[in-house]
Amino acid sequence: MQQCVTIYYLTSYQQTSVEVKLPLEKAEQRNTESSEKASRTIHTTIDVDGDDEKQVHKDPKQTGSNGIQNGQGQGSTSQQVEADDPEPTTKCKLLLVVLTASTAVVVVALLWSFFGWTSGLPALLVAIVGLLLMTLGWRWFYIAAITSQRDITALWAYIKLLLLIKRYERRNVSISDMFQMNVSKHPDKTAIISETQSWTFRQLDQFANRIADIFHSHGYKKGDVIALMLENRVEFVGIWLGLSKLGIITALINTNLRERSLVHSITVAKCLALIYGEDFADTVESVASEMSAKLYQFNNEINRAVRNSAEDLATLMNSSTHVTTQPSTIQHPNHHDKLMYIYTSGTTGLPKAAVISHSRYLFIAAGIHYALNFRSKDVYYTPLPLYHTAGGVMSMGQALLFGSTVAIRKKFSASGYFSDCVRYNCTIAQYIGEMARYILATPPTEYDRSHKIRMIFGNGLRPQIWSRFVERFNIPKVGEFYGATEGNANIMNNDNTVGAIGFVSRILPQIYPISIIKADPDTGEPIRGADGLCRRCGPNESGVFIGKIIKGNPSREFLGYADESASTKKIARDVFKKGDMAFLSGDLLTSDERGYLFFVDRTGDTFRWKGENVSTSEVEAQVSNMANYKDTVVYGVIIPHTEGRAGMAAIYDPQREVDLERFARDMAEALPVYARPQFLRFLTHIDLTGTYKLRKVDLQKEGYNPNVIQDELYYKTSAGGYETLTRDIYDRINNGGIRF
What we know:
Blueprint: E1 4-9, H1 12-15, H2 24-30, H3 33-38, E2 41-47, E3 54-58, H4 87-115, H5 117-136, H6 138-170, H7 175-185, E4 190-193, E5 198-200, H8 201-217, E6 225-229, H9 234-245, E7 249-252, H10 259-268, E8 273-277, H11 281-287, E9 294-298, E10 311-312, H12 313-318, E11 338-343, E12 353-357, H13 358-371, E13 379-382, H14 389-402, E14 405-408, H15 417-423, E15 428-432, H16 433-440, E16 455-459, H17 463-472, E17 478-482, E18 491-492, E19 502-503, E20 514-517, E21 543-548, H18 564-568, E22 571-573, E23 581-591, E24 596-602, E25 607-609, E26 612-614, H19 616-626, E27 632-637, E28 646-652, H20 660-670, E29 679-683, H21 697-702, E30 712-716, E31 722-724, H22 727-734
Parallel strand pairs: 4-14, 6-7, 6-8, 7-11, 8-9, 9-10, 13-14, 13-15, 15-16, 16-17, 28-29
Antiparallel strand pairs: 1-2, 2-3, 4-5, 11-12, 17-18, 19-24, 20-21, 21-23, 22-23, 23-24, 25-26, 27-28, 29-30, 30-31
């Protein structure tokens, strides 16, 4: 009988694909005839017995894949997958296992009966190992061996976290109670330090007690909501901490909000009052007539002018300096009560107020503490805004819950990042991905490697700059994490694996029930089987990341938003069995064989061009690198009479430093044809969120229209270069005179 070996030849651009795998049905519906022909794979069949070679052109539709196995994890490969019916194979394997198990039981029983346990016990162990090899395969043992240290380390951290949570839950402890324990332990230790302030635990506690006394005397009580709009400073923490002693929920307002977004954030949380810093007096003044909330202006000095209807909070604080303890006639907050609202960035619409309870705050801060092996003696540096989870909970929680010192900065400075770390003797520093890119773009200084940082932690450090960052700044360890403020699908990279945002155990995946399920990359809607249930993705297959919801469990509960209708949209029901629920992250992730997870894109951000799916996050990373780490946002735009969306990159380059000829050459080397931006827009100003994310909604609406855009626009020519996009060119593109 002849034996044949099939070799799949893939073009170089397929091997560097950044696309996100679509379900086959979607791919078939969207592929045009021309793109199908262009993406055909040539199968060369070689007859091992010596017959002539035969070339067969096979359409990807006729196979079980589109010709590219997607994924950004390590070990991701491009491969063709034939669709076979697994049912007969599964039944045969099950029958073989049953027969083998039955035989093993008989043999072990006979050995034990005739020769005793000295022969029976080894035989039993051999039988167990044999059955495991048959059911799980030798590969499972290999993966288990190389990931066991990672998994055991994470399991031990998770056990310590659950024990801490259970202990505080039984005692009905609030965040202010936990903070009070640290005040008692080391009252004169520095809690928070900044460019202009340094407060001990005692000073922070006394300030919080005065806040509690004032608002208690003004009639506010447990369950009321008060908004706080203040820059990074020690008083920010003292104010919400003091309000929490009364059981008041603090809505942490993004200081970048203006007009409609600001009014929405205050009204959606049903705030009875707004505390704001004097730097935001004009902002509040412009919308005061649209709000019913009582105003408290916090000035930098006492007896300074405030808005007519506002209370002078700084002066009120000065008149209550005699207060050192919290009011005695208050209703103590419970462990599971709401503590604060933290708002989403609002990159795709109005901000949503995510609920953070006392137990949730504990879970987030303590979770990262144990997962990354933080120590109470560590000194943390965070230039992130305190109104977000990363800076306000993950870093600040180390001071409030574990008695560490946290250094903050009013506003992030790329050039001052490591000089601050040296100045405050920090051992752990926090980042988000865009910050890391800004820091890497700064000129070398004496502080680059003279710090004491033993670890940086954060999210969004892109694989493209990861190694360069840690090498230049001599960073021993990176703790990359992934999670949403409101979500329960939170993961952590605890072993320094480059590019990974976390992992799921391949040995015991049930311990932390998170999964990647097949979903439509445009809508994020789960793709279900004939039984109505969701389908898990395999290794190197992209899908939506979810976390199982278990009510009453702080690590698995989904508290949602202040707006219940918004919460409902983030929940999937009947996921793996009827009646279960899961939180939909809205992010596309992929996992490799070892369980490491890698970020692909946001659902809805991926667009389709030339029959291929393009990941905006991957293209953004490459474009930013080629543009010397400049702010970049990539999105798809519609060209009339053309299928799919063409890629467009908006680059913040007010000085126009990007060399277009070199940029085009670099793009040709770094990205496949379909992923290269067809249009470029050079921004002269940008609109960033508090976590340094570019807002792309308005950019996408404006498209490549020079009639509404004042920035410089360019289009990609058939020769591969970029030329100015004029109004005449715009009309020719829309009329089909210029094709892409």
